[in-house]
From TrEMBL:
Keywords: ATP-binding, Kinase, Membrane, Nucleotide-binding, Serine/threonine-protein kinase, Transferase, Transmembrane, Transmembrane helix. PANTHER family: MITOGEN-ACTIVATED PROTEIN KINASE KINASE KINASE 20-RELATED, SERINE_THREONINE-PROTEIN KINASE YBDM-RELATED. CDD domains: STKc_PknB_like (cd14014). The chain crosses the membrane at residues 306-326. It is an enzyme of class 2 (transferase). Its EC number is 2.7.11.1. This is non-specific serine/threonine protein kinase. It comes from the Bacteria.
Length: 892
């Protein structure tokens, strides 16, 4: 049937030809029933006999019909008449992004707006299991209502030989054509894995997305070639020039986002469009300032160095090494924002137990933060704001929760079992005192350090070192279990701190004021997190917003109403801390909570090869595997929640369902030996953690195994005979953060008993398959090492690791013990278990891992594969934001 103006396809009257889609002709038409203009996509008659193309045409109809989103072209109808198959779609008025790019590069604000709109639409498709496979500027229509994605018609992979025939075409047409078969999509925008004939997934779309962002910013595609062969070679092997080298005013943050999208290895890209969208939103909200042309930056640097030397009343700004650095002098200062990025190929380590969020020095000249390098080691890094690159602080491996001395010369920080300080001008760290699982410190002008622990009151110690002494007292009648995140007020005597219950019930945390001269305390604020004082304001988090409230430091009382300062402040619910810090000179550093891309449950072979995933990227914590390998239990933070819940994955169907429903934190799920039950910890108990049990299929409500739990027991393993739970629990004495090993009998009255108790902190106990031994980690040597001891004891213990180790796990046959070294390597030790002795072999390194610093982050399958809660190479790509003269914005 020939189609001309005036032709009718059912109730649709053709008005005019409108162009060609990915595999069909498009007409502007009128719906005579509803009196509206529509677009008709027609499969040409000469192609209608091709079963593959017809199937593809029908696939587009099915794909688009499953999607309902303002950023996706709407499908109104599907029809067939006189041998003509057609789709009736929303008629979009505007121009394609391809046409817009032909006019030149887009402004940064337009790039971020269009990119965010694209990401919102693509995220909807991905959540429906639909991968576009042919993202390109020609398939994006710019309308008054925003960007719209079009053309979801590409077929799945077919014959790999299609690539060879495609390469015989010796020139690349300016009209970018789509090739059918194994290589589906438009060559210019294909990911390397597409070109190699691999199955496309959402990361394939992310590669094309990066190319589109690049082309919008640079005005040209990232990869070029005179023939398809040379174009493909460019995509597979070359790196495009940085956008900034072509368009110097490009925000550095955008250049970095694009580089991550264009990684050759899909595992190195953003793993979901949601992660990418959050990065674009962060950038659009002011997360990165526009760049400065290189010649101008050079001239500015000369002037600013001079200004710094003369102490001129200016805020000096210079762009270097892909991020902005600040030099501060006398006030007044403009309100400005900038960002800091970690060293190349490193992750910021701001959240999780043992995190090291960024803290700015009191004089506003330096920022210290924790970062995990490619070798898996976490170190503290010092960024001077008048320098271009950060520097390592030697001896600060696994340093956590850093804090500054008032003169900005020393830095306090915690290790697993000690409080230390380091002179930033040089020299090794010095231990001040023992401190198991520190939770924040503050340093007075009289050289007194007050610090918190995971459990127990605040302690004080001289800045020169000495025995710690309690400076507060827990109010057990109010179920206080922890005092943490202290902050000295300007007088150096009084301090603010957070008091909370046992565990992490963030809804019941309260801010008090205390004093070195008195045991009396007074409630100041009901807040779920740490506080900071500067510029006459108290800063604290409330419902994901950083608030600033006028505060009289002498009276320790508020003098005005709270005002919002930063939306979506990042929050670490595992330790009840928001990620922000302020200097005395008017600089706020913080991280946004919008861009926490989290981690992924990834299978690895013994050789360290990635071998599949469970679920998508998320804020995962602990992980457990059912004995039959069909289910995975994990704890994660979902949506806007601040506490972890237990979720269950059906591995075969990749379906996730919520398993626990309490408002407070649940943690560390453990399967019973028969896989029919799951135990997990719950922070909601009024006398400490509760150990709860529930059928694994969710067929009955949870039950508490113990009604009281003064030791704060948390189960880590279940013996193969089903008789015992192996737990960690509160230690004794002043350092109540120390942990001992306990067991709960699953029969009788279930009264817990101590298995191993001493002055050191122990963790992560695991039963051997025969139940006669257990592996655990202990810091008795000064660092964590892995040991094996008899159960239930007593008896001699045997050290297994030889250079530090934690998180032991047994092979199913008990002939091998695994653990993670302190430099993040998966280790394996052959082991022979006798009746009264253990014979461990030499540890063997298997492969590097990237895991968060928490418990129960991996399991070993029956096939000796490892399911690991894996932090991606760029999983924490949220930069550190700097905000100068923030207080002035509150007075407007």
């Amino acid at each position: 049937m020939p189609i001309t103006t005036g032709s009718k396809l059912g109730p649709y009257e053709i008005i005019a030809a409108a162009g060609a889609g990915g595999m069909g002709e498009v007409y502007r038409a009128k719906d005579t029933r509803l009196d509206r203009i529509v677009a008709i996509k027609v499969l040409p008659t000469h192609l209608n006999q091709d079963p593959a193309l017809k199937e593809r045409f029908e696939r587009e109809a099915r794909a688009v019909s499953a999607l309902s989103h303002p950023g996706i072209c709407v499908l109104h109808d599907v029809g067939s008449q006189d041998g003509v198959d057609f789709l009736v779609m929303e008629f979009l008025e505007g121009e394609t992004l391809e046409k817009r790019i032909e006019k030149g590069p887009l402004a940064a604000a337009d790039i971020l707006r269009i990119g965010t709109e694209m990401a919102n639409a693509l995220e909807k498709a991905h959540r429906q299991g639909i991968v576009h496979r042919d993202l390109k500027p020609a398939n994006i229509m710019l309308t008054k209502a925003g960007a719209k994605l079009m053309d979801f018609g590409l077929a799945k992979r077919g014959d790999p030989n299609t690539l060879a025939s495609a390469l015989t075409e010796m020139t690349v047409s300016q009209k970018k054509l789509t090739s059918e078969g194994a290589i589906v999509g438009t060559f210019q925008y294909m990911a390397p894995e597409q070109l190699e004939g691999a199955e496309a997934d959402q990361r394939t779309d992310i590669f094309a997305f990066g190319e589109i962002l690049y082309e919008m910013a640079a005005g040209q595609p990232p990869f070029k070639g005179k023939t398809k062969a040379s174009l493909i070679a460019s995509i597979l092997s070359s790196e495009p020039p940085s956008i900034a080298s072509l368009q110097p005013l490009t925000p550095p943050g955008l250049d970095r986002i694009v580089r991550i999208c264009l990684e050759k290895d899909p595992d190195e890209r953003f793993q979901t469009v949601h992660d990418l969208k959050l990065q674009l939103e962060w950038l659009a909200e002011g997360g990165s300032l526009a760049g400065v042309p290189a010649p101008v930056a050079h001239r500015r640097k000369h002037r600013e160095t001079l200004a710094w030397a003369l102490a001129a009343a200016l805020l000096a700004v210079t762009a270097a090494a892909g991020f902005f650095l600040w030099r501060l002098t006398a006030t007044p200062q403009p309100v400005m924002r900038a960002t800091l990025l970690p060293p190349e190929k490193s992750n910021l380590v701001a959240i999780g137990i043992g995190g090291a969020p960024a803290v700015i020095s009191p004089d506003g000249k330096m920022v210290v933060y924790g970062a995990m390098g490619p070798d898996g080691r976490t170190l503290l890094w010092l960024q001077r704001l008048d320098a271009t690159t950060p520097q390592q602080l030697p001896g600060t491996e696994a340093g956590a929760y850093p804090f500054w001395s008032p003169d900005s010369r020393y830095l306090g920080f915690f290790t697993t079992n000690a409080l230390k300080k380091i002179d930033i001008t040089g020299g090794p760290p010095q231990t001040l005192c023992d401190a198991n699982q520190g939770r924040g410190g503050t340093w007075s002008k009289d050289n007194v350090v007050v610090f918190g622990l995971r459990e127990g009151p605040l302690m004080r110690v001289p800045a020169a070192g000495g025995p710690p002494v309690a400076v507060t007292q827990l109010n057990r009648s109010q179920n206080e279990g922890t005092h943490r995140w202290p902050l000295f007020l300007p007088d150096g005597k009084r301090f603010l701190y957070m008091a909370g219950p046992n565990g992490n019930d963030n809804n019941r945390n309260v801010i008090f004021v205390g004093s070195l001269d008195s045991k009396e305390t007074r409630q100041v604020l009901g807040a779920s997190t740490n506080v900071q004082y500067a510029e006459g304001y108290l800063l604290y988090r409330r419902e994901n917003t950083l608030m600033a409230q006028p505060f009289d430091a002498k009276k320790a009382d508020f003098t005005g109403d709270p005002m919002p300062l930063i939306e979506h402040i990042r929050f670490d619910g595992s330790v009840s801390r928001a990620i922000f810090s302020v200097s005395e000179t008017g600089i706020l550093v913080y991280q946004s909570g919008l861009a926490n891309s989290g981690s992924r449950l990834t299978w690895f072979t013994r050789a360290g090869k990635s071998d599949g995933v469970v679920g998508d990227v998320g804020l995962f914590y602990n992980v457990a595997l059912s004995p039959d390998g069909k289910r995975v239990a994990t704890t994660l933070v979902e949506g806007t929640a601040t506490a972890t819940d237990v979720w269950m994955f059906d591995v075969a169907r990749n379906i996730r369902t919520r398993f626990s429903f309490n408002p407070d934190r649940e943690f560390i799920p453990v399967f019973s030996p028969d896989g029919k039950q799951v135990v997990y910890g719950d922070d909601a108990g009024t006398n400490g953690f509760l150990v709860k049990v529930r059928p694994a299929d969710g067929s009955a409500p949870e039950q508490a195994l113990t009604q009281t739990n003064p030791q704060n027991l948390a189960a880590l393993d279940w013996s193969r005979d089903g008789k015992y739970l192996l737990c960690i629990g509160r230690g004794q004495g002043v350092n109540s953060g120390a942990l001992d090993i306990w067991a709960i009998p699953m029969g009788g009255d279930r009264t817990p008993f101590v298995v191993l108790q001493d002055q050191f902190s122990k963790d992560s106990p695991q039963f051997s398959p025969d139940g006669r031994w257990f592996a655990y980690q202990s810091n008795e040597s000064g660092r964590d090492e892995v040991y094996v001891a008899p159960f239930p004891g007593p008896g001699a213990k045997f050290q297994v690791s030889n250079n530090g180790g934690r998180l032991p796990k047994w092979s199913k046959d008990g002939k091998e013990l695994y653990y993670i070294s302190l430099d993040q390597k998966m280790m394996a030790v052959p082991i022979v278990l006798g009746s009264a002795s253990v014979q461990p072999g030499a540890p063997q390194e298997l492969f590097p891992v990237r895991v968060p610093p928490i418990r129960a982050v991996y399991v070993v399958g029956a096939d000796r594969r490892f399911l690991i809660n894996t932090i991606g190479e760029a999983s924490d790509t949220v930069p550190i934001s700097l905000f100068t003269n923030w207080a002035s914005t509150l007075r407007k």
